[in-house]
Amino acid sequence: MSAQARSRLAEIVDGHRIVVCAGSGGVGKTTTAATLALWGALRGRRAIVLTIDPARRLADSLGVGPIGNTPCQVEPEALGSLGAPTSGTLTAMMLDQKGSWDELVSRHAPSEDVRDNILANTFYRQLSQSFAGSQEYMAVEQLGELDACGRYDLIIVDTPPTQHAIDFLEAPDRLLAFLDKKIVRWFVRPGFTAGWSTLQTMNKTVGFLLRKIEDATGVVALGQVTDFFGSMGELFDGFEERVERVTALLRDPTTAFVLVAGPGEQVLGQVDYLASQMAERQMPLKGVIMNRVHELLSGVEADERSTEGVAAAIASPVRRALEAAEVDASPQEVATQLAANLVAWQARARGDALRTEIFRGGLPPGVPLVQVPDLPSDIHDLAGLASLHGFLFGAVD
Ligand SMILES: Nc1ncnc2c1ncn2[C@@H]1O[C@H](COP(=O)(O)OP(=O)(O)OP(=O)(O)O)[C@@H](O)[C@H]1O
Ligand SMILES: [Mg+2]
């Protein structure tokens, strides 16, 4: 069953051009994205991982620095040292999270004047800092560029830490809703000079529009909105088209969404919801990677639910070990502590296994779930990433 799931996952990665690693924060998305890209490179593909805020040591081994968002190719020798020679390449690129809206505006502004007006606008500055989804949107925008440049045949997308896996998928739609032409027209109407507060009391429609903008942006002080929309007017057409293009890219059959989850998460209870939301967006869930699963230790010769029972069972080896190491400690206390630790680990492992099974049961038919154990140390270099391939894809050739 699990061997089958692993080879299914391998088929999914091998059979798609874009793989988006979605999932809530801290579950190992960045690590997973990097390891999937490495897998592609080792199988001869020109792979790139669009990564977000990788841990320092992982960033170093991928060759991406803390600033800048230019693609960096991993040295072919470093790839070669992992085993079979490959004609594939591995490139990493860090999503620049700071100033990304500015960059977008600069890129699309029809003139320097328009650009400067927008960048100097107070509303814009607030908006660009607080618009929920700007990171998600920028990741999608960047994905569009990597796709268009034609240099890669496998693009793995790490997604920004969000509370819910679905947030990432909603970003383009939310931006489109925000840029809704009907709304824009309200603000860019020639001769429209009414102040914000007048506008607010004008009628229900306007009240609705304001709430829509406030919902999308979280910005309440909207003093310079009219100006902003005036300057932005010329950008909207371009934006809308672009958003539609990247949304289409996300919905393309060559794009796969893989959920990275942890066995302790709340999201585990919501898999039906998540899967149906993804299907509704025509971005179906293709596979699940359950990361950092605590595995049940075998060979415990006592009732592993009882600290006293385990402590009694290990009392004499603990005493001998302490004597041999000439450690002055109470064997009984040490045995009790070790036993408590083991009992807690086993309880957690049983919980992980149970939650994983419930989760698996709620998955749409045919969606594979693979498990990666919680490894004793961090994964921060290429060899560490490669060591995950066996868990993810089964036998590695
Ligand atoms: N299976 C594993 N076993 C042990 N350590 C792991 C495993 N997977 C990931 N880690 C470690 O967990 C830490 C967090 O992983 P990672 O940065 O990939 O998470 P993330 O989901 O991207 O987090 P964030 O949401 O904050 O971006 C890293 O130090 C990584 O090395
Ligand atoms: Mg991350």
Discrete helix count? 18
Distance between the termini: 20 Å
Low-confidence stretches: 185-204
3D shape: elongated
* Number of domains as seen in the coordinates: 2
| Run of helices and strands | HEHEHEHEHHHHEHHHHHEHEHHEHH
> Would you tell me the overall average pLDDT?
79
Name every ligand kind in the structure. Answer: adenosine-5'-triphosphate, magnesium ion
CATH topology of the largest domain: Rossmann fold
How many strand segments?
A: 8
The main β sheet shows up as: 8 strands, mixed
Structural class, by secondary structure, is alpha/beta
Share in β-strands: 5-15%
Q: Would you identify the CATH H-level superfamily of the largest domain? A: P-loop containing nucleotide triphosphate hydrolases
The Cα radius of gyration reads: 26 Å
The strand line-up of the biggest sheet is 3-4-2-5-1-6-7-8
Characterization of this structure:
This protein is an alpha/beta fold and 397 residues long. The protein folds into two domains: 332 residues, P-loop containing nucleotide triphosphate hydrolases (Rossmann fold, 3-Layer(aba) Sandwich), CATH 3.40.50.300; 45 residues, no CATH class. It has an eight-stranded mixed beta sheet, sandwiched between helices. Helix 11 crosses helix 12. It starts with a helix and ends with a helix. About 5% of the residues have low confidence. It binds adenosine-5'-triphosphate and magnesium ion (MG). The site of magnesium ion (MG) has 6 residues, from helix 2.
